[in-house]
Amino acid sequence: MKFAIALFAAPHLPASRRALRFAQAALAGGHEIVRLFFYQDGVHSAASNVVTPQDELDLPGEWREFVTGNGLDAVVCIAAALRRGVLNDEEALRYSRPAANLEAPWELSGLGQLHEAAQQADRLICFGGQ
């Protein structure tokens, strides 16, 4: 089965951990993930400057390892990211910000990427949100 996964929840919320565990289980079960889409507060999972306390699970780090290790297509909604200060080098330069905090493997793009993923997948699974 082909899955598109959308994460709306911040990294400290249970939905983020559930999304990661679901994605790991899907691949382990022989399924395909056509795209991971990070939206709303889920964009914080892609920020490279998140510092997780030592006694907590580092979900942004785990997401990065998971995406990189499996060569997945991981898209961060550009509108949600800009609103929350999550910028790649290009956007930091465009908006005259002093630093970027979004690095590979993440890609900034629009909601059209979520729509496209939903069309390619057998199932769109969403975690978090309101």
Residue share in helices?
25-40%
Strand portion, in percent? 15-25%
Q: How does the major sheet shape up? A: 5 strands, parallel
Total number of strands: 5
The separation of the N and C termini measures 27 Å
Listing every helix as H and every strand as E from the N terminus to the C terminus, the arrangement reads EHEHEHHEHE
In order across it, which strands form the biggest sheet?
4-3-2-1-5
- The Cα radius of gyration reads 14 Å
Uncertain regions spanning at least 5 consecutive residues: none
Structural class by sheet pairing and helices: alpha/beta
Mean pLDDT: 96
Helix count equals 5
The backbone outline, from C-alpha atoms, is globular
3D architecture notes:
By secondary structure, the protein is α/β, with parallel strands linked by helices. It contains five helices and five strands, in the order βαβαβααβαβ. The protein has helices at 14-28, 59-70, 78-83, 89-94, 112-120; strands spanning 2-7, 32-38, 74-77, 107-109, 123-127. The protein has a five-stranded parallel beta sheet, sandwiched between helices. The model has no long low-confidence stretch (mean pLDDT 96). This is Sulfurtransferase complex subunit TusD.
